[in-house]
Automatic annotation (TrEMBL), chain A:
Residues covered by the Electron transfer flavoprotein alpha/beta-subunit N-terminal domain: 4-190
Gene source species: Fulvimarina uroteuthidis
Domain of life: Bacteria
Record carries keyword Transmembrane: no
UniProt-annotated stretches for the region Disordered: 182-202
Pfam family, one: ETF
Coiled-coil zones: none
Protein name (database record): Electron transfer flavoprotein subunit beta
Cited SMART domains: ETF (SM00893)
Keywords from the named record: Electron transport, Transport
From TrEMBL, chain B:
Pfam family, one: ETF_alpha
Start and end residues of each stretch annotated as Disordered: 1-46
Signal peptide coordinates: none
Regions of compositional bias (Basic and acidic residues) in chain numbering: 1-15
Keywords: Electron transport, Transport
Entry protein name: Electron transfer flavoprotein subunit alpha/FixB family protein
Domain of life: Bacteria
Coiled coil regions, renumbered to chain: none
Chain ranges of the Electron transfer flavoprotein alpha/beta-subunit N-terminal domain: 96-266
Similarity field: Belongs to the ETF alpha-subunit/FixB family.
Length: 244, 406
């Protein structure tokens, strides 16, 4: 299986220095658990920006040299079309850039591949050429999706923690810079949008909610334990928390 | 200027009943009002009020109109607004879609905020827009949360994400809403990107601020922000836009067959839901926490109860400090801040540090021997009883109901 990890030039949320995004490190972890050849792919002005990825399990990263501020989609999709990997892994959101999480969706649209979002585990499927992806849903639920390859999968933060960083491996690995043929320097993905320095805005307060339910049925002093148990179960049932 | 002012000196004079050696007063004596008039700022302000306006307007250039005798005579704005009615938008000027996940058949906090954002944009400018809630069938409180119309996503559970996106896309194409709002969380975030990319429209994700005129999102690791008029496709983060709290809306069901694009993606071979195991979940992820405090001495019974109720076990700091529960189970300011829907507190007093951790919980059940405990005050159902007696009874009842259901 040929697996490609999309690596972005992420920045650390606190120090703003170039750092590997945790999601992409987790993606490398998921990929190395499958048996296959795992390569990184990065489109950007500087290949060294993703050297850290070589320290958490990759040995080769392909770097597509495009200018800074250029939309990487063109270069990435051309490369992916040529390479035709079986599985493409990406983070669900970028970190320190546009952070809209649109790159995988645009790639899926451009290459006409199925996209599975928010994976926490990937294993080989029941038939050759398929994989089984566990997708994280809310409140701990999962959805197990069997999908035919090739496919794009984005990784959720609840995926297993990434492998520890190995400095020697990061030095040893290769970053191979590839020429980019077409060059459409399409800038400015958001016409009509302005920029200014960020100003933190307070979130809405989660103040103690006024207790739900009618006040009359609220307080029960010294009920028999069986009666108390019944009251609690009825309350759970009425509010749709648990039904037994 | 009508209320007369008390004049203590003249009152005292009027009440004095000329004693011989020392002054004597008859305090029971009713005395007439003094001559000095007293200003009544409230009545004056009432005189300035312009009653035709829908919100409070004061016209201070008004010469003081004769002040009505009692507050009841004035046409009160409050009594007009208080009329409980259903808000109806009969012929909407435009539509605003709110795509709701409503996991397990209930609107989450973020779902309500999505509806609130849609309501905000529908009432923007000259108003007249209608909010269309797109939700699984059978959600009851959509109207109260601000939906004028409802489009049911029937048979939603077994659909794959591409099929669902195709269906919402068909709705968008058929009804041409001005805005479509999603939650930046779970399935909503996925659907929003699929639809916007397939329609080749710009989408603004994870808004940090939204008003009728301006939408703002952070980028470059919270160093710069982008702003502009709200675009067509928007996803909002949690606790960024207030939920709707006004007069209930109509929530009329719209019909229409939007199954055109239901063709499932041939690459997706099978989808099976795997129910989460609450006892294995982290506290921040679960929806129901069963929690023990210092009032619980029988920890084994507590753990068995949490498992039987399929809730995630939690604890107060005292219990964690004593080593009876792992530190990862601690709820509160220095433990985990919950996002759960329901919290069952057994023998927990409700210290401020603990209550901070459960501020987001909608339903709280308290079992405590102390009627005056803060947790009892916070709870939606409070049982004043010994937790050691309630826990086995509750477990027995759950086991019995499970057995009967089988
Ligand atoms: C900086 C700081 C941070 C803190 N952070 C946290 C935090 O994150 N989380 C946290 O929990 N605490 C925290 N605390 C501690 C907090 O202030 C309280 O001490 C703690 O929450 C009290 O725990 P409790 O309610 O279980 O115990 P208690 O205060 O001892 O209350 C026990 C309750 O159980 C009831 N009871 C007794 N016997 C029974 C019985 N048989 N049946 C039923 N009820 C019974 C009693 O009436 C009482 O209401 C923090 C404190 C500080 C100073
Ligand atoms: N320049 C890039 N080169 C390679 N992969 C990228 C690039 N930008 C984004 N990605 C991938 O797309 C994911 C989402 O990024 P974004 O759309 O920027 O939020 C990232 O986690 C990466 O996996």
């Amino acid at each position: 299986m040929n697996i490609l990890i999309c690596l972005s030039a992420a920045r650390h949320p606190v120090s703003d220095r170039p750092a590997l995004s945790r999601l992409e490190a987790q993606a490398i972890g998921l990929a190395t658990r499958l048996d296959g050849r795992v390569t990184g792919l990065h489109a950007g002005p500087d290949g060294e920006a993703v050297r850290e990825a070589l320290g958490v399990g990759l040995s080769l990263v392909d770097h597509l040299a495009i200018g800074g501020g250029v939309d990487p989609l063109e270069a990435l999709s051309a490369r992916l079309r040529a390479e035709a990997p079986d599985l493409i892994l990406a983070g669900r959101r970028g970190q320190g850039g546009e952070d809209s999480g649109l790159v995988p969706y645009c790639l899926a649209e451009a290459l006409d591949l199925p996209l599975i979002a928010d994976a926490v585990a990937i294993e080989t499927g029941p038939r050759p050429g398929t994989i089984r992806v566990d997708q994280a849903l809310k409140k701990g639920d999962r959805r197990r999706i069997t999908v035919k390859l090739p496919a794009i999968v984005t990784v959720h933060p609840l995926a297993p923690a990434p492998a520890p960083f190995v400095f020697a491996a990061a030095r040893r690995g290769t970053i191979r810079t590839l020429p980019v043929l077409e060059r459409h320097d399409r800038q400015d993905a958001h016409p009509g949008w302005n920029e200014r320095p960020y100003r933190a805005r307070p979130k809405l307060m989660r103040t103690a909610a006024t207790p739900a339910g009618d006040p009359a049925g609220k307080l029960h002093v010294d009920p028999a334990p069986e009666e108390a148990a019944r009251l609690i179960l009825d309350y759970l049932e009425k509010n749709g928390i648990r039904t037994f | 200027m009508t209320r007369t002012r008390r004049d203590p000196r003249s009152e005292r004079e009027a009440r004095s009943v000329g004693g011989r050696h020392r002054p004597r007063f008859d305090l029971g004596l009713a005395v007439g009002a003094s001559r000095r008039p007293r200003r009544d700022p409230r009545a004056e302000r009432r005189g300035f009020e312009v009653f035709a306006a829908p919100r409070l307007r004061l016209d201070r250039t008004q010469t003081l109109a004769p002040i009505p005798a009692g507050p009841g005579d004035a046409p009160s704005r409050r009594s007009e607004a208080a009329a409980p009615a259903v808000r109806v938008v009969a012929a909407p000027a435009y539509l605003v879609f709110a795509v709701l996940e409503a996991a397990k058949g209930r609107l989450s906090r973020l779902d309500r905020q999505v509806l609130g954002a849609a309501r905000l944009l529908a009432d923007a400018g000259e108003g007249g827009g209608a909010v269309v809630g797109i939700a699984p069938a059978g959600i009851v409180d959509l109207g109260a949360c601000g939906a004028d119309r409802v489009l049911a996503m029937t048979g939603d559970g077994e659909m794959s994400a591409p099929a669902r996106a195709a269906r919402i896309r068909a709705m968008v194409e058929a009804l041409a809403p001005r805005h479509v709002i999603f939650a930046e969380d779970g399935e909503g975030a996925d659907l929003a990107r699929r639809i916007a990319v397939s329609l080749r429209e710009t989408i603004l994700t994870d808004l940090v601020s939204l008003s009728a005129r301006q939408a703002v999102r952070a980028r470059d690791g919270n160093r710069t922000e982008m702003f502009g008029a709200p675009p067509r496709f928007i996803t909002i983060g949690e606790d960024r836009v207030a939920a709707y709290g006004g007069v209930p809306c109509e929530a009329r069901a719209l019909d229409g067959d939007f199954n055109a694009g239901r063709s499932a993606d041939p690459a997706i071979l099978s989808i099976e839901p795997v129910a989460g195991d609450p006892s294995a979940l982290s506290l921040s992820e679960t929806d129901f926490v069963v929690s023990a405090g210092n009032g619980v001495t029988d920890i084994e019974a507590f753990k068995a109860l949490a498992a039987a109720l399929s809730g995630t076990p939690g604890a107060s700091r005292v219990v964690c400090d004593a080593g009876l529960m792992p530190r990862s189970a601690q709820v509160g300011a220095s433990g985990t801040v919950l996002a759960a829907d329901c919290y069952l507190a057994l023998g927990i007093a409700g210290a401020p540090q603990h209550l901070q951790g459960i501020a987001a919980c909608e339903h709280v059940i308290a079992v405590n021997t102390d009627l005056h405990a803060k947790m009892v005050e916070r709870a939606g159902l409070a049982i004043v009883a010994d937790a050691q007696a309630v826990m086995p009874a509750l477990k027995a009842l759950v086991d019995e109901r499970k057995r009967r259901a089988r």
